[in-house]
Write a structure and sequence with these properties.
Elements (H helix, E strand, L loop, with lengths): L9 E4 L3 H12 L4 E4 L3 H8 L4 E2 L3 H6 L4 E4 L4 H8 L8 E4 L5 H13 L3 E8 L13 E6 L1 H6 L1 H5 L3 E4 L6 H27 L7 H15 L2 H11 L10 H17 L8 H12 L8 H7 L3
Parallel strand pairs: 1-2, 1-4, 2-3, 4-5, 5-6, 7-8
Antiparallel strand pairs: 6-7
Helix pairs in contact: 11-12, 12-13
Bound molecules: ligand FVH.
The site of ligand FVH has 22 residues, from helix 1 and helix 4.
Length: 295
């Protein structure tokens, strides 16, 4: 129990789906756990599993001797929950999804109140928490010493990757990966729309091919990063932009033939076309990054 455990005590504010999964992982790892949730019923069920329940956020903070983890809906709920509470000397770890700009503001806000601050961006869904084999992890940024001090606590529920002392960088990594995922889902949606009308097409088999192909293509991120770093966008090019852009005609014609709206693809195809028109057909995709940034 709380008095005999040698593990760092954890305080957790927020017991939604993710907070509850984190709570269970810390309890399973033997960390004494104090929880608070706006709707008390969610805390009560964890009390039955060994957590101590605080009646208010202020009470939870007052008794906290270890890290105080926030896992709330959004940054506004973090502000509301901590409003007026003495944060002097507290170690705050904010796992609430945020933008980079708001994470930096929240870090400054916490430090002005005498707290240490680490921001986190969770790259996992609740069923992945407490199951290292699923490959989930959290990006952390901000106070490096705080990350090191609480590394054991942070690594108990899922992986932990520190990505820099700029408090906005965890959110930036999180949102950048989610943005890439959104583009990938757009492509997958288009692909399924193309094959949908075909009666004698093995959908499960197609899904497997799609997953395999996306995995094989994912390695191009390294080629692109190397080109952006060196400034030579022709470096190591395996498929050049002129060829890819010309190939887009077949993609568009097939979309039309299969009665699929091409608008998930056309904005990116337009960037490729513009870069080729500027005389950069021998490059890889890196030049489209410049166009996207208006450079
Ligand atoms: N669930 C997921 O798949 C994703 C995975 C990636 C990371 N996200 C982020 O994690 C944060 C928490 O997400 P969650 O899944 O736990 O979210 P909910 O189940 O909706 O729970 C929300 C909790 O926030 C509390 N809350 C909401 N508004 C307020 C407020 N004004 N003051 C105090 N607490 C508030 C809510 O309380 P209650 O409704 O139970 O009273 C829940 O505890 C989130 O940033 C995701 O983006 C999850």
């Amino acid at each position: 129990d709380d008095h005999t455990s040698s593990k760092t005590p954890v305080t957790l504010l927020g017991l939604g789906d993710m907070g509850t999964a984190l709570a269970r992982a810390w309890l399973a790892a033997g960390h004494p756990l104090t929880v608070w949730n706006r709707t008390p019923a969610k805390a009560e069920r964890l009390a039955a599993e060994g957590a101590r329940v605080a009646a208010t956020p202020a009470e939870a903070l007052a008794s906290a001797t270890g890290p105080v983890v926030l896992c709330l809906l959004d940054d506004a709920s973090v502000g509301k929950t901590l409003d007026g509470i003495d944060l002097t000397g507290k170690d705050l770890i904010d796992l609430t999804t945020n933008t980079p700009a708001r994470s930096r503001l929240r870090a400054a806000w916490a430090e002005e109140r005498g707290a240490r601050f680490l921001d986190g961006g969770i790259m996992a869904v609740p069923p992945m928490i407490g199951r290292p084999e699923t490959g989930g992890y959290v990006f952390y940024s901000g106070d490096r010493a705080l990350f090191e001090r609480h590394r054991e606590v942070l690594e108990a529920p899922t992986g932990a990757k520190f990505v820099g002392e700029d408090a906005g960088h965890a959110a930036l990594h999180d949102i950048a990966l989610l943005s890439a995922m959104t583009g990938m889902f757009a492509g997958v949606t288009h692909a399924f729309a193309l094959v949908r009308p075909e009666k004698d097409l093995d959908r499960a088999g197609f899904a497997a091919l799609l997953a395999e192909w996306l995995g094989a293509m994912a390695g191009m991120t390294h080629e692109m990063a190397a080109q952006l770093e060196s400034g030579d966008y022709t470096e190591g090019v395996t498929s050049n932009l002129a060829m890819m852009s010309a190939g887009n005609d077949a993609l568009l014609a097939t979309a039309e033939g299969q009665s699929v709206d091409p608008r998930l693809l056309t904005p990116f195809m337009e960037l490729m076309r513009r870069r080729v028109a500027q005389g950069h057909g021998d490059e890889g995709l890196a030049g489209t990054v410049d166009l996207l940034r208006g450079e």
